[in-house]
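Much of our argument rests on the idea that a fold can be written as discrete symbols. Part of our work consisted of pairing the sequence of a single chain with a tokenised description of its backbone. We regard such an encoding as a compact summary of how the chain folds. The amino acid sequence and the backbone structure tokens for this protein are reproduced below.
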Amino acid sequence: MGNRTEIGQGEPAAIPAWRSRLREYMRLMRLDRPIGIWLLLWPVLWALWISANGHPDEKIFVLFVIGTFVMRSAGCVMNDFADREFDPHVRRTADRPLAKQSVSPAEALALFGVLGIIALALLIPLNRPTQVLALIGGVLAVTYPFLKRFFALPQAYLGLAFSWSVPMAFAAQTGELPPIAWVLFVAGVMWTTAYDTIYAMVDREDDLVIGIRSSAILFGRADRGIIALLQAGALGGLALVGHLAHLGRWYWASLAVAGALAIYQQYLIRGRNPSDCFRAFLNNNLFGLSVFGGILLDYLFRA
């Protein structure tokens, strides 16, 4: 009886500890903040629908969506591992698991390894061109966090990593990389660079103190103007995609909405207030959604 009582009393204490550990791992993968998943997913969906003329292969769709979740989680883990010495000194990141030492660096690397194995397993059913492109994308994702030490424009590098899914989607669907794939890729790079520069404006003062590089620091007082040029370039690229893909009025209406959202973001960042800049960053989820909505509706209502 005594042993049963001890075991019974020990179990409730173990369960909360296990749940607490899992919660920290989920926070390390940033699953509590899905905005990054959506921003990574929108170009994937744009490319899948356009490359397949509105009818993407179901298996490819599922693999790419799961892969987006896995790679974003792995990227966050590696980012926090790389920044574990810097994050405690930045207000926005001081509560991250590695920063507050609720997860060890060894645990983070182990979690990254598990996510990497899952990502590799997802590649097995895909064709060889897609597998090769995915390995390149993996290198981009893993190396990005370390560029902030010496590269003045890491946001552009993130744009390459976040938009690399576009040529991957075309390769998976068609086995080819037509010009429209690269136009959409460049548009995605410009869009990502723009919104991540807005994001970097939130931490600019802290980054200056600890020595982290960012486009917000590089651009200085020209930040808003350069962001506007990047947004215009992204919209121009998306317009060219619409022309090449022969998309109709639903798509052009969605680009008008996206343009209005870009103008609204410029309004939010006019004073460079960190909280308003963060709101402008989050607003890009609607930008990506509006573009995908136009693509989806255009193919849906075609005769």
User: Anything to note?
Assistant: Residues 1-14 have pLDDT under 50 and may be disordered. The CA atoms of residues 2 and 8 lie 10 Å apart. Residues 2-28 form the longest helix (27 residues).
